[in-house]
Design a protein that fits this description.
single chain, alpha/beta, 2-enoyl-CoA Hydratase, Chain A, domain 1, Lyase 2-enoyl-coa Hydratase, Chain  A, domain 2, 2 domains, 5-stranded parallel beta sheet, 3-stranded mixed beta sheet, 11 helices, 12% strand
């Protein structure tokens, strides 16, 4: 970590950073550490070598996606999708997450990026929702995230065809925010992360992140109104709010002292369902 930015690198370059069970647990552990460390203000994901992530490790051949458990709908012993566990953990991050997608991102390699707040990519990046071409279905909660990111028509086209998507189309669709030369990508991601780290109250960013992502699934704007009313009430009385206004009036940089780990209120008490935690 440097400049209050944590960088998580997928590091199996000889295998194009293909996703494994070990990688799953290490990503979750890294996000647990970043959430607990108040010196971390933003998180960047990138890949080692020439790929971001080539998808699931297929070294088991035809049995790659065959696992234990019952296939009877509704039973509790159906194994959890590993990509989904990663996506849910990114979704629940208390720190903003930036994807610096430095090369091919296929299968879980692209679906794990969907709950990241901002995705940047290199001009060598390409993306593939190839599940139907492998005889499986979308995973990593992408049937929820992808239509919200690019719209239902584009999402269905990409999933139904399983074709590869180049960087320019990814930008035009909103899958990525911007495209950079390979040598400039990580610097651009760090510039964005520093802008967050140096200018904003960390608790405000954490709460705003929760509200915007969770409101994507809200049934009525009243749900946003309730959460925002709770947040305005609690944050408006906080030392951060006083510092934010005072520093503006005094024309100086703000010094926000409240900590995400201890000072973040729960604006969504109704979301605390232990069955899926």
């Amino acid at each position: 970590m440097s400049e209050k930015i944590a960088t998580i690198t997928l590091n199996r370059p000889e295998k194009l950073n293909a996703f494994t069970n070990t990688m799953l647990h290490e990503i979750i552990a890294a996000l647990d550490l970043s959430d607990a460390d108040d010196d971390v203000r933003a998180v960047i994901f990138t890949g080692a070598g020439r790929a971001f992530c080539a998808g699931a490790d297929l070294s088991m051949g035809g049995e790659t996606f065959s696992r234990g458990g019952s296939d009877v709908a509704g039973v509790k012993d159906i194994p959890r999708d590993g990509g989904g566990l990663v996506s849910l953990r990114i979704f629940e991050s208390k720190k903003p997450v930036i994807g610096a997608i430095n090369g091919p991102a296929v299968g879980v390699g692209v679906t794990m990026t969907l709950p990241m707040d901002i995705r940047l990519c290199s001009d060598t990046a390409k993306f593939g929702f190839v599940f139907a071409r492998r005889g499986i279905i979308t995973e990593a909660c992408s049937s929820w995230f992808l239509p919200r990111v690019v719209g239902i028509s584009r999402a269905t086209e990409w999933v139904f065809t399983g074709r590869m998507i180049l960087a320019d189309e990814a930008k035009e669709s909103g899958l990525v925010r911007n495209v950079f030369d390979s040598g400039e990508l990580l610097a651009a991601a760090r510039t964005l992360a520093r802008e967050i780290a140096e200018n904003t109250a960390p608790v405000s960013v954490a709460l705003s992140r929760q509200m915007m992502w969770r409101m994507l699934g809200a049934s009525h704007p009243m749900e946003a109104h309730r959460a925002e009313s709770r947040g305005i009430l609690q944050r408006g009385k906080s030392p951060d709010a006083r510092e934010g206004v005072t520093s503006f009036l005094e024309k100086r940089a703000a010094n926000f002292t409240m900590k995400v780990s201890t000072d973040t209120p729960n604006l969504f008490p109704e979301w605390q369902d232990p069955e899926f935690r």
